[in-house]
């Protein structure tokens, strides 16, 4: 059972009774999503680009998606958004989050209209945005595609330790392009070592309110002729 719960910035989140955790920070769902995924992830990784692909782990309410859609539309960036979700929420619960207040109405309307279909395959929400939500466990997800950005938004290690094991982090990192960006709200020594072991250079950034730090990692460029980052 998921219960709609307000957070400190006035935006709602869901509390998952089975896992015993909220979908977002209690200090502010909207500000966490903007800080970690949009500002540290998308704005950083899409600078100078006209097209971007994002792989998210944990679609949940779609808050990260609608904010990404809005940012890409406003900046004329073509967005390919793939978000793995093992336990999709019912559309009518997503409609009760109040998140429609945070994005232009066309973005919200196209999201709600396409949500159920996106769980079955890729949908075009606008000329600048495709969305697919593979209904699968991360461990079972396979793709020949690689992505520019990974939004790693699993429940915390305290509540879902298997989502932070070395093996599952390696599996997630295998979908990152050379030069691609991995961002998450969490940061632990174990996570830093796991991400580094997968060829990424790590950065500690100030965390969203309520968290001191967060992790951003950049995958090394394999072709030395245009190396930007090295491990
Ligand atoms: C912290 S919430 C994600 C919040 C989401 N990004 C949002 O903006 O609402 C974690 C999500 O991971 C999903 N999840 C849990 N186990 C998973 C697994 N093994 N594979 C993929 N998704 C999983 C949960 O159902 C939940 O939607």
From TrEMBL:
The keyword Protein transport does not apply. Residues 108-219 form the MnmC-like methyltransferase domain. It comes from the Bacteria. InterPro entries: MnmC-like_methylTransf, SAM-dependent_MTases_sf, tRNA_MNMC2. It holds the Pfam family Methyltransf_30. Keywords: Methyltransferase, Transferase. One of its GO terms (molecular function) is oxidoreductase activity, acting on the CH-NH group of donors. One of its GO terms (biological process) is methylation. The keyword Lipid biosynthesis does not apply. This is tRNA (5-methylaminomethyl-2-thiouridylate)-methyltransferase. It comes from Pedobacter yonginense.
